[in-house]
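Hey Z.,

So I finally got round to the guanosine-5'-diphosphate thing we talked about over coffee. Here's the setup:
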Amino acid sequence: MSEATVAPDWTEAGRKLFAGSCEFIFAAARSDGLPPVGPPEIAFAGRSNVGKSSLVNALTGRNSLARTSRTPGRTQELIFFDLNGRARLVDMPGYGYAAVAKSKSESWGELARDYLRGRPSLLRVFVLVDGRHGLKENDHETMRTLDAAAVSYAVVLTKGDEVKAADQSARIASTLEGLRKHVAAYPEVILTSARTGDGVAELRAHVARLLAERGGSRTAIAG
Ligand code: GDP
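And the result:
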């Protein structure tokens, strides 16, 4: 590729990336049943009901790719989608739903933790946090797991349409403040809404840029 003289248009790159095909490829309920390592993976984690399925659907422009409104906490699976052969999107099980029996939520945690610790193709995790409430203790717990596994992650606030415009920058600032004690957190927070589409182009751009800059190399993201 010739040397770029203008900054790449990541928004356009993101639009193109997500305009291509996106297909379900695999659901794994056990860590010894993961699909073989392939293209770089971008995973989505968050508390049950945070709006994860809705955001994955908004990102990919599909209404029903990821299952929305499923029983919170019920799906104990990692769901893999192929994004145009360039990357995989991984929908992780929701955490922190009180009605999930402790033993079941622990086995969920085991699957998620095994995946996070041992997946060389995992490029970034988006930790989704309900924009109406900000970071909760179990979000910090998830981020501590990610810190310990040296997995790079970024926090994405959801349901931004329910946060008053006047409160949005304060919510972003307090979330950024909460990230300071986490070593592997990307120091940027994107406020999104699956309902209005706010922040979705920004998130696509983030993924396109990540794939362009760091595609494939786990070691390159450790710092
Ligand atoms: P998941 O359990 O994290 O996959 O969450 P879902 O995507 O199924 O959404 C959980 C609930 O939040 C549903 O009632 C959605 O309609 C609602 N929801 C999801 N995204 C948004 C959003 O951007 N704005 C608002 N206001 N509600 C949302």
